[in-house]
Amino acid sequence: MSHQLPALLFLLPLFAAIAMPVVCLKHREWSRPISLGVLGAMVVVSLLNVINIINLGEVRYAFSGWTAPLGIEWVADGFASVVMVMVSVLGLLGIVFAGPTSPKGLHGRIVHYYVLILLLISALTGIVFAGDLFNLFVFLEVAAIASYALIGMAGGRALFASFRYLVLGTLGASFYLLGVSYFYAASGTLNMADIAEKIPQLLSSQALLGGLLFMFIGLGIKMAMVPFHVWMPEAYTYAPESVSPILASLATKVVLVGWVRIIYWVLGVNVIVDAIPILFLVGLLGMLAAVIGAVLALVQQNIKTMFAYGGIAHIGIILIGVSQGNQTGFVGGIFYLLNDAVMQAALFFLAGVAISQYGVRTVEELGGVGKQAPWFTSALIVVALGMIGLPPTGGFFGKWYIILGALEANNYVAVTAVLLSTLLTLGYFVRIFESIFRQTPISAGINQSEIPFSLKLSVGVTSAAVLLLGLLSDPIVQLLLTKALPPGL
Q1: Rounded average pLDDT over 3-26
Q2: Do 83 and 165 share a domain, yes or no?
Q3: Which of 41, 60, 422, 429 gives 20 to 30 Å between its CA and that of 66?
């Protein structure tokens, strides 16, 4: 049974999404409890899967018995399994938060709304576990289509943001698929493990280099890597308050996971360190993103736009970590990815509460909310400590290992970029807290007891997780070092 857990993680949300329109035909209100039950089951299964990987090692699951390289292969190693815990937990919290903040006026479309969320989670699971390049493309597109529809549900400017995302996302998918075709022309296979075995004989192939470039651009657009990030701020700003946390915490992070899989598990450590200077390019773009994203966040007034640009900066910091070519930097980057997913969810949960419950969207207006709701301010302080990178939060330890990895690689420019991005992050949170502590409370007259418990629960759990990841940083980092490193690193 333990061998079936990776497939079960994928099939749970997929089958629920397929069955929901029929099951909820006469009882639309069942859609949310069903989604909560499915995501709750995913959390349990993902934890069992991690325990299974720790005890028994990597699982390779062949659907329908068609073994690789002919069939569809799922690769559940330590790297994928740890990321799946993140996906399932944050997906569950996203559903918890979505109830009171789901777009108004959905009426009969509420079932479609939850179907799209389940399809998105299912596709993200597929990206994490996919063992061949083409199936990775399929799941990238399912996730993207679900994201376009979820963003557009808010109507108004969200429709334009969704359309812009669709155009650029389609361009990114086209680049990626073109790169896959080049890889297939050079190697004659799409299975990642099969390609990895043939890579040493293909280093002189122009098709391989061309395919790598196209895939790099395509996935760079999908994960909002500078300079391909232009779609992301508007999409996350105008998306429904119930959708932004799921997208911000999972969508770009999981695409980044797929890109890391291709770099380290397909091309291999020796190739990216000695033969193809891909790590240099990744590190350079990571440094640009870390600084540019933080600078743009610093000058924003809309809180969701500010947090979106902050997310771009933190994608850059993750890229800096994984581009150092050593164990310390790689583990630091992956640990920071886990932390940043939690912090982005918490920030957009807080933004969703501010907008849906208090009707405020700007930094100046946020000041009044902070004084009226002490629990809100307390959660924001904890998340800000993590974003800035101060102990005892997980953000501190993630940045610490990234900096140690950069020092180990004698990459002092990367260290400077991380520290500069940290100072800029401090700058925009100082703006927020200055507004909170100098403003008088807003006169909206909202009773704190009227704020739904599910909103407070989502904010509280993610805020606590920011601290918990810091307190448990040592065992998590040891797990990553022993079970999640790519071969040869």
Answers
A1: 88
A2: yes
A3: 41
What's the pLDDT tens digit per position in 200-258? 888 888 888 889 999 999 999 999 888 888 899 999 999 888 899 999 999 999 999 99
More confident residue, 488 or 319: 319
Q: What angle do CA 379, 380, 384 make, to 5 degrees?
A: 120
Q: CA–CA separation, 233 vs 252, rounded Å?
A: 12
Which SS3 state, helix, strand or coil, does residue 486 take?
coil
Q: Helices in 389-411 by DSSP H: which ranges?
A: 394-408
Specify whether 141 is located in the same domain as 265: yes
Separation of alpha carbons 382 and 349, rounded Å? 14
Q: For the chain, give percent helix, strand, coil, nearest 5.
A: 80, 5, 15
Return the pLDDT at 462.
Answer: 95
SS3 state at 71: coil
Q: Which helix (H) or strand (E) holds 76?
A: strand 73-76
Q: Is 442 helix (H, G, I), strand (E, B) or coil?
A: coil
Same domain, yes or no, for 349 and 253?
no
Note the helical H segments in 239-277. Answer: 244-246, 252-261, 269-270
Site of tokens 């992070």: 253
Q: What is the largest CA-CA distance in the chain?
A: 70
The CA radius of gyration of the chain, in Å to the nearest whole number, is 21
- Count the neighbouring beta carbons within 10 Å of the beta carbon of residue 311: 29
**Which has more pLDDT, 193 or 441?**
193
Both 264 and 330 in one domain: the answer is no
Per-residue pLDDT band for 265 (boundaries 50, 70, 90) equals very high
Structure tokens at 64: 């329908």
For residue 225, is it left (φ>0), alpha (ψ between -120 and 50) or beta?
A: beta
Torsion angle defined by CA atoms of residues 334, 336, 340 and 341, in that order, rounded to the nearest 10 degrees: 30
Residue that finishes a domain, picked among 243, 276, 309: 276
Residue 16 and residue 333: Cα distance in Å, rounded? Answer: 33
Report, as an integer, the average pLDDT of 320-342. Answer: 94
* Count of structural domains within the chain: 2
Is 294 within a domain?
no
> Is the pLDDT confidence value at 84 over 90?
yes
Range of the domain at 186: 1-276
Considering the domain architecture, whether residues 246 and 354 belong to the same structural domain is answered as no
Among residues 177, 176, 185, 174, the alpha carbon closest in space to that of 207 is found at: 185
Cβ contact 136:127 at 8 Å: yes
Distance CA(288)–CA(109), nearest Å, equals 41
> pLDDT grade, residue 273 (50/70/90)?
confident
Of 103-107, 186-190, 384-388, 458-462, the least confident: 103-107
Distance of CA 273 to the CA centre of its chain: 26
Same domain for 305 and 257, yes or no, is no
